[in-house]
Amino acid sequence: MRLGLIGLGRIGAFHAATLQGLPVVESLVVTDPVAAATAAVVERLGVEAASSPHALLASGIDGVVIAAATPAHPELILAALDAGVPVFCEKPVTADPADSVEVLRRAEQSGIAVQIGYPRRFDTAFVAVRDAVREGDLGWIHTVRSTTMDPAPPPDGYVRASGGIFRDCSVHDFDAVRFVTGQDVVEVYATGSNQGAAIFAEVGDVDTAATVLTLASGALAVVSNTRYNARGYDVRMEVHGSADSVGAGLEDRWPIRSTEPGVTFPAGTPHSFFMDRFAAAFRAELAAFTDLVAGRISSPCTVADAVEASWIAEAATRSLNEHRPVTLDEVRLQEVSS
Fold it and tell me: For residue 46, is it left (φ>0), alpha (ψ between -120 and 50) or beta?
């Protein structure tokens, strides 16, 4: 299989090595607007280079992975669809979910396979939680708790361009809640605070957030996020039902210190970075894309899935700013009509 990769920043360079290591990938063609980034990956991995995304899409590839900056996502997805090339694109589909609606329409009309990058869908523990819910092991679900806590804030430049904590961080929790429960979110209430760097308040963001999601069944999901978790990178999910409870991320590398007498759990070294925590999931995600390209599976994370997570992030952002619950229907209607 011959694949292309557009974008060779932090995650793109990481994906290049992962793709190169997949047995089914016989050749890889890469490109980046920064020539030095392309040259570095070519030298390190011995892959082919293309002069531009257009040249890459015309180079006889079977599928393309898009890891470029967010503003380029819609244009590159549509270019791949026009070229008839199956697409994997990192989230989000677009910076504004209202703009994603057009990409969704074009993708569905094209019939070309598209997969959006949400690696928790490929984490072994998260998949096991989903399976337990699907099989009815937990009875009816009443509470979900999802956590993403970063060890330290991202660079100021990233904060200024990210769109806020709900759109760049919490959105992974929002997608994971939908993935494991199989339910849509109908209402959102979000709050947040700033006790750290001034940059967050300057751009109208928060460094710590809590969001309550009401699911279609009436179950409640509580999402907790912060940029300041000095003990390590903390990603967990708990699902509690009428018959049982399960949790993902409760491992020896969980970055927490127990104060219970005689308790040594957790005893491992905490994760410090998301690419460390989800290395196996990223590999499984891209392996799934090769199966998608080969026609062996349907998309494990569709454009529609990604757009729905973005709507939840939009509702959370509005809830934070307006200090009230916001329904998903309200956000969809107002954003699309504006």
Answer: left
